[in-house]
Structures are given as structure tokens and as C-alpha cells.
């Protein structure tokens, strides 16, 4: 795969990432064993937040976004990815485009963490 923004990714790569997100074992099981249950196993919600800002590199003292997806493609790509997640899981449990008020009210206090998709092999 060539270096470049995500719009050049084949659909099979996106589907692979959807499966990886839904099946990544990052939760405890009933006996307390770590790293044994997935989002699907636990029937949890998935909050998918576009992290376009991760695509910058530092050039001197300034961020360089030349590897980031152009804004006119980013929203379409993100919405398509959300739809793929909904098709592969329970649509009502897939969340995106968070209202900033949710963050202030502490709705994400039980969040496990975030994962950079470019590192999910």
C-alpha cells in the first residue's frame, strides 16, 4: 500500500479495520481475566471519532498536514466508515460525531481508550 491519505485505501482494508475494532479483545471477562472480551462480546457501544489531526508530522515548530485526507473527502470517508460499522454490528450501538456537551457531562468516563487505526494490523 502506498503512503498517502485514507481515501486511497481499498474497501477490504476498511472492512478489515471494522472487524478489528469490533473484535479487539480489550475488556475483562466475568472472572476478571484481562484482554479476553471484545465490544461485540460485551454488547458495548462504539464511539468512532475522526482523528484527522493525528495525520500531522512536525516540521520544525509547525504541524504539517500534507498526509492528511483533504477536508472535502474526509467527511464522506468518515460517514462511510460509520455505515460499515453499523452494518457489521448493531447500528444503535455505533456512535459518531459527539456533541461537545457530552464531554462536559462526563459521558465518556468509562471509555477504555483510543486506538490509532493505522496501527491495527
UniProtKB/TrEMBL annotation:
Domain of life: Eukaryota
Transmembrane segments: none
Entries under Gene3D superfamilies matching the protein: D-tyrosyl-tRNA(Tyr) deacylase
Database matches in InterPro entries: Daa-tRNA_deacyls_DTD (IPR003732), DTD-like_sf (IPR023509)
Species the sequence originates in: Terrapene triunguis
GO cellular component annotations of the record: cytoplasm
Protein name from the UniProt record: D-aminoacyl-tRNA deacylase
Reactions the enzyme catalyzes: glycyl-tRNA(Ala) + H2O = tRNA(Ala) + glycine + H(+); a D-aminoacyl-tRNA + H2O = a tRNA + a D-alpha-amino acid + H(+)
GO molecular function: D-tyrosyl-tRNA(Tyr) deacylase activity
Amino acid at each position: 500500500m502506498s503512503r498517502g491519505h485514507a481515501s486511497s485505501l481499498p474497501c477490504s482494508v476498511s472492512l478489515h479495520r471494522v472487524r478489528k475494532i469490533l473484535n479487539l479483545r480489550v475488556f475483562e471477562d466475568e472472572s476478571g481475566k484481562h484482554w479476553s472480551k471484545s465490544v461485540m462480546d460485551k454488547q458495548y457501544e462504539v464511539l468512532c471519532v475522526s482523528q484527522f489531526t493525528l495525520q500531522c508530522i512536525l516540521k520544525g515548530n509547525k504541524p504539517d498536514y500534507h498526509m492528511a485526507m483533504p477536508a472535502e473527502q474526509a467527511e464522506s470517508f468518515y460517514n462511510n466508515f460509520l455505515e460499515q460499522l453499523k452494518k457489521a454490528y448493531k447500528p444503535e450501538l455505533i456512535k459518531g460525531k459527539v456533541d461537545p456537551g457530552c464531554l462536559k457531562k462526563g459521558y465518556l468516563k468509562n471509555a477504555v481508550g483510543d486506538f490509532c487505526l493505522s496501527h491495527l494490523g
